[in-house]
């Protein structure tokens, strides 16, 4: 009996060995594809090619009686690795004879974006607070001035900029857009565009990352910049600055604020976090992680996102009122009314609710794959 | 130039074809391992074997200059598939000559657990509301009576049970534990144990799923039941009923309530959910999914979890107070005090915050793998 098992396990060992060799071969091939693309100025990430390839592999999997979902998941994970290693060089879409100047280029976001400009061969300059005395010279021949300073200083820094060359592109990467865009339009008569990169500075590459674009003035003159970000793999989304800011208060500021409040609430309760984790199934572990992860990040960054959000106090007032209304139903033991209210919101979410359930459940299965029950 | 690229792509096609064949072979081997284990009464899931295997594969990956993380992620995904297909039969640890009776066996949780008892060969009976007239006969020779009815009826159903055989195990699977356990101890003089399976009824198998165990009376007589659940792959966690219930209000009821309130708040704002998703990076998409997924599920189930949570109104009062205190800082523009408060909670989370950040970021990378930017 145990020899049967040993025999089967030896076979599995052999298969896994071959699997690793295949992954090594595949990595060499995709690296060669990346070099070829760099050399010929082709975009790194081509969504259609990826979609086609996965559809073909799913068919092949079904034919071999292997789960198509399994094959797709494995290949997507392998592709992530190849994007991460393919990004050595990127072709440039702009003029390489004039510098890109990142104001606040030593900050996390500025450094991250600077790396990409440098990889595409742009002469790169950074301008920090201490360099302000030399700002005029630093910006005199700039092709692009990119403002990447903390959110609470963005508008002041824009207003303090010296005169830029008439054809220089002025852009910012702040997470609010209406006020900085207006400040840029006021300061500079040339091409102006507001950008909001929707990712943290720790992403290794920009494949599939979203950047929101708020058009200012002179789009033909900054088209090269948008094309450049697309070459790096980013997905661009046009949005009006006012719409963007309204949405971001709901997407970012309200979530950060309520998560911060939940963390402070757990502290106030003296909850034993290790015990909560020990008893948590993957879904509740993730709920706690969404709160806990906030407190591993920069307090000043989150304070600034929260303080800069227009109308946040009014929105929080509405949220509190919603909370109170529901709580009253619980206090009064009105189970039917609570269910009625639930149905009501269900109608608002519509088809999106089951779609988000499926999506997050699949993610939880992936979280569960990696879970080591010994660690809890 | 395009012929170079075609050549490389043909190689990638060939490699992927071989990969699919290897996955098919591996599935046949693990299915054979599963059959062997079933036939010899060996447990399906052996954490130590999994840990050893992964450590060996990581070394082999490093030697082949492939990312060890990539190989581990791929193999964990492959293992999930093999657990899902290995579970055809499970050896039994209890007496197969007397029936397991699931009260509420037609409900989602009852059906899910019933499948596992049936697969291990136990004679299975279910008892529903309409069958109550025959309860005495149905339970007369039971080895185990498992109460799996909705949370608001659990205690009443337990009290209404007829006399059970003296050595029959009485257990429940409700998500609160103190009151049902007391009701069971009052009703039955024999072995009693409270269980809380920490997973939804849609899990395909129990490998690594957590079940909380609250010991009642006569542990030697229900040891077979705990062993049985371990054979199915579950991880058992002992907990006192009071501790369990306190933790669950924080883990489940408060989170469900605040998520429900956030969904109702978004509706009240008339927020365009599709636009929010279009602008969301993976982390914010997940935040929205954690709210939206709630509304794809049973309103009655969530209402009952919320209504059954002792002290929920007091806890929500504390949460509201925390929210108000923080909001006052925002209203007063007290940035430094807000940062101070943030640091304070940071101290409470300690080392857990960066650990949860790492864990959830890795999960977000996996979410990002599967993201199709065309769909948004």
Indicate the topology.
The structure is a homodimer of 376-residue chains.
Chain A: H1 2-39, H2 47-63, H3 68-86, E1 100-103, H4 108-119, E2 124-127, H5 135-139, E3 144-147, H6 154-159, E4 169-172, H7 178-187, E5 192-197, E6 210-217, H8 219-231, E7 235-238, H9 241-269, H10 273-278, H11 282-292, H12 299-308, H13 312-331, H14 335-349, H15 352-369
Parallel strand pairs in A: 1-2, 1-3, 3-4, 4-5, 6-7
Antiparallel strand pairs in A: 5-6
Helix pairs in contact in A: 1-3, 2-3
What does this structure look like?
The structure is a homodimer of 376-residue chains. Chain A is an alpha/beta fold and 376 residues long. In chain A, 61% of the residues lie in helices and 9% in strands. The first copy, chain A, folds into three domains: 2-86, Up-down Bundle (Chorismate Mutase Domain, subunit A); 100-239, NAD(P)-binding Rossmann-like Domain (Rossmann fold); 244-369, Orthogonal Bundle (6-phosphogluconate dehydrogenase C-terminal fold), CATH 1.10.3660. In chain A, helix 1 packs across helix 3. Residues 372-376 of chain A have low confidence and may be disordered. Chain A has helices spanning 2-39, 47-63, 68-86, 108-119, 135-139, 154-159, 178-187, 219-231, 241-269, 273-278, 282-292, 299-308, 312-331, 335-349, 352-369; strands at residues 100-103, 124-127, 144-147, 169-172, 192-197, 210-217, 235-238. Chain A contains 15 helices and seven strands.
């Amino acid at each position: 009996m145990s020899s049967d098992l040993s025999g089967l396990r030896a076979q599995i060992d052999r298969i896994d060995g071959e699997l690793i060799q295949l992954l090594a071969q595949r990595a060499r091939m995709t690296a060669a594809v990346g070099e070829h693309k760099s050399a010929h100025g082709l975009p790194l990430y081509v969504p259609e090619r990826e979609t086609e390839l996965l559809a073909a592999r799913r068919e092949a999997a079904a034919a071999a009686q292997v789960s198509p979902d399994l094959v797709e998941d494995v290949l997507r994970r392998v592709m992530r690795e190849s994007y991460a290693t393919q990004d050595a060089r990127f072709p440039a879409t702009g003029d390489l004879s004039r510098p890109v100047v990142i104001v606040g280029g030593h900050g996390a976001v500025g450094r991250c974006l600077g790396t990409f400009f440098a990889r595409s061969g742009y002469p790169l300059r950074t301008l920090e607070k201490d360099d302000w005395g030399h700002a005029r010279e630093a910006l005199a021949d700039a092709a692009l001035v990119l403002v990447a300073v903390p959110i609470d200083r963005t508008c002041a820094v824009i207003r303090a900029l010296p005169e830029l060359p008439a054809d220089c592109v002025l852009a910012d990467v702040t997470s609010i857009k209406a006020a900085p865009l207006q400040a840029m339009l006021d300061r500079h008569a040339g091409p102006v565009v507001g950008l909001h990169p929707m990712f943290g500075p720790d992403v290794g590459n920009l494949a599939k990352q979203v950047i929101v674009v708020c058009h200012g003035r002179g789009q033909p003159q900054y088209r090269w910049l948008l094309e450049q970000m697309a070459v790096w793999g980013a997905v661009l989304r046009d949005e009006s600055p006012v719409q963007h800011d309204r949405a971001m208060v709901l997407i970012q500021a309200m979530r950060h604020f309520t998560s911060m409040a939940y963390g402070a609430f757990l502290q106030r309760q003296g909850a034993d976090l290790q015990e909560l984790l020990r008893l948590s199934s993957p879904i509740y572990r993730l709920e706690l992680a969404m709160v806990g992860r906030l407190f591993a990040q920069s307090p000043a960054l989150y304070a600034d996102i929260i303080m800069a959000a227009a109308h946040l106090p009014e929105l929080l007032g509405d949220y509190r009122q919603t909370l109170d209304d529901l709580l009253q139903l619980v206090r009064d033991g009105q189970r039917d009314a609570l269910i009625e209210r639930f149905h009501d919101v269900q109608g608002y979410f519509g088809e999106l609710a089951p779609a988000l359930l499926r999506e997050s459940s699949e993610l939880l299965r992936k979280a569960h794959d990696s879970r080591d029950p010994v660690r809890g």
